[in-house]
Every structure is written in C-alpha cells, then in structure tokens.
Amino acid sequence: MGAIAKITAKGQATVPKEVRTALGLSPGDLILWEVEPDGTARVRRVGPVDIEYLRAVEGTLSEWASEADEEAYGDL
Questions:
Q1: Which of 5, 58, 68, 71 could be a cystine partner for 13, CB 3.0 to 4.6 Å?
Q2: Beta bridge partners of 46
Q3: Is 3 helix (H, G, I), strand (E, B) or coil?
C-alpha cells in the first residue's frame, strides 16, 4: 500500500484515509513516527498513557531503589 500526503508550510500533513483505516485511527488518536537509520520512517497508532497504571507499577519498584542498587547499577 502506498499513499501520498503533502506537507503544509506549518509542517502538517493529512493522514490519507486508507492509512487511517488500516491503522484504525480516529480523530484525537495518537501516532508514533519511528525514523530508521536508513532514512525510512514507520508510523503506528499508540494508545493513551494510563498514568494510574504507571504509578501503581512504580510503587512496586521501591525494592530496587536502595543505595546498594544505585552503587551497583547506577552507571548502566
């Protein structure tokens, strides 16, 4: 599948309908642009960030936040 979009003076482009359909995009959805070292780019749909879930996960990581851990792994 190939689709062409024109970049405006503000750097904006319309995502072609066939791409929106293929990615299941709706107004307000987020997309991620990934640029590869060879100059190609990929675009994919991403879900919204669930802040409450991330805070809950963060709370389980406290056992890895000791001074000993920082000393052993701080330079990774």
A1: 5
A2: 30
A3: coil
Please report the sign of the dihedral spanned by the C-alpha atoms of residue 14, residue 18, residue 23, residue 29.
positive
pTM beyond 0.85, yes or no: no
Query: From CA 7, how far away is CA 13, in angstroms rounded?
Result: 5
**Gap between the Cα atoms of 28 and 64, Å rounded:** 37
With CA atoms as reference, report the closest residue to 5 among 19, 23, 24, 25. Answer: 19
Q: What type of residue sits at position 29?
A: D
Q: Residue 4 gets which letter from DSSP? A: -
**DSSP-derived secondary structure letter, 15:** P
Contact 46, 36 (CB under 8 A): no
- Euclidean distance between CA atoms 18 and 43, whole angstroms: 13
